[in-house]
């Protein structure tokens, strides 16, 4: 059963889109990530234009993150002050990212930019995650407790603010920089940025794990919504039909993923996620390197 996507201007099997949303929801439930960094490349693979995939992927992140952050508010595990600082950096980064996205789109280079960003970031994050997970798995088997690295230079920076929920007294500069980077990635890659923000909040800022996820989701909601609005207003690339179908599948898949993830060890989950990230990265890299099946040329008279 085919459904026509008016903004993407392609017809796609409705069950394929529901299944894709379900797969990303399953992974989100298993690994505790938004899934945008996997959803957008998967949309590339089924023929959705990169500009539409990026904008629509960001749109889906808003809905999934909003429902999740409500539970964290009830548990009082959201640091609103830290989230606001991250959000300021994120909004600035998103504005810059959308401006860069629009400029490259006018030059006809946006598809290449998005693919290169994914290959670079997924390759780096996947490799680091895989190595860290293997080391953690070996230590857990030997009964060695994991150690958290402390970055003393972070505490020497100026403009310090007390973040009471996180129990921190640090400079606002590192959170602003983290938010800025995530905002740029949200605009260009159509991701929430949680797969970079969460490790940065834990290992760089030193936030307690219990407040990291909720605070990250709080920032992601507004940055993703802002990014989606900018893309919709300037590029007209948000496909509502595509977003709704992906959301339906994602909601169903997340329920099954949460059940599966609760039965597995954290180290095993991280290794599986790292392997999946590297697999998607390799697929994108191959598509950039191999000769396309259809070649086009513009020959002058």
From TrEMBL:
Keywords: Cell membrane, Membrane, Transmembrane, Transmembrane helix
Signal sequence residues: none
Keyword Metal-binding recorded: no
Pfam family, one: TauE
Subcellular location as annotated: Cell membrane; Membrane
Membrane topology: Multi-pass membrane protein
Domain of life: Bacteria
Keyword check for Transmembrane helix: yes
InterPro entries per the UniProt record, alphabetical: TM_pro_TauE-like, TSUP/Inactive_protease-like
Family: Belongs to the 4-toluene sulfonate uptake permease (TSUP) (TC 2.A.102) family.
Record PANTHER family: MEMBRANE TRANSPORTER PROTEIN MJ0441-RELATED, MEMBRANE TRANSPORTER PROTEIN YTNM-RELATED
Name of the protein this chain belongs to: Probable membrane transporter protein
């Amino acid at each position: 059963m085919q459904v026509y996507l008016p903004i993407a201007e392609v017809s796609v099997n409705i069950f394929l889109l529901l299944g894709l949303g379900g797969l990303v929801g399953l992974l989100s439930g298993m690994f505790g990530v938004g899934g945008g960094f996997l959803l957008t490349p998967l949309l590339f693979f089924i023929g959705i234009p990169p500009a539409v995939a990026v904008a629509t992927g960001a749109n889906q992140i808003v809905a999934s993150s909003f429902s999740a952050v409500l539970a964290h508010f009830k548990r009082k595990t959201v640091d609103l002050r830290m989230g606001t600082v991250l959000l300021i950096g994120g909004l600035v980064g998103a504005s810059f990212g959308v401006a860069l996205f629009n400029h490259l789109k006018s030059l006809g280079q946006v598809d290449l930019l998005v693919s290169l960003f994914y290959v670079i970031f997924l390759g780096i994050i996947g490799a680091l995650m895989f190595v860290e997970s293997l080391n953690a798995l070996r230590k857990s088997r030997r009964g060695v407790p994991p150690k958290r690295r402390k970055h003393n230079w972070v505490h020497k920076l100026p403009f310090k603010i007390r973040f009471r929920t996180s129990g921190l007294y640090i400079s606002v500069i590192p959170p602003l920089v983290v938010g800025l980077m995530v905002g740029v990635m949200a605009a260009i890659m159509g991701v929430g940025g949680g797969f970079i923000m969460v490790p940065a909040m834990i290992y760089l800022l030193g936030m307690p794990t219990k407040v990291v996820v909720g605070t990250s989701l709080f920032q992601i909601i507004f940055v993703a919504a802002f990014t989606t609005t900018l893309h919709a207003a300037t590029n007209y690339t948000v496909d509502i039909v595509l977003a709704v179908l992906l959301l339906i599948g994602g909601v169903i898949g997340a329920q099954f993923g949460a059940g599966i993830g609760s039965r597995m060890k954290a180290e095993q989950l991280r290794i599986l996620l790292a392997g999946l990230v590297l697999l998607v990265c390799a697929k994108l890299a191959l598509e950039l390197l191999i000769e396309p099946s259809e070649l086009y040329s513009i020959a002058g008279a």
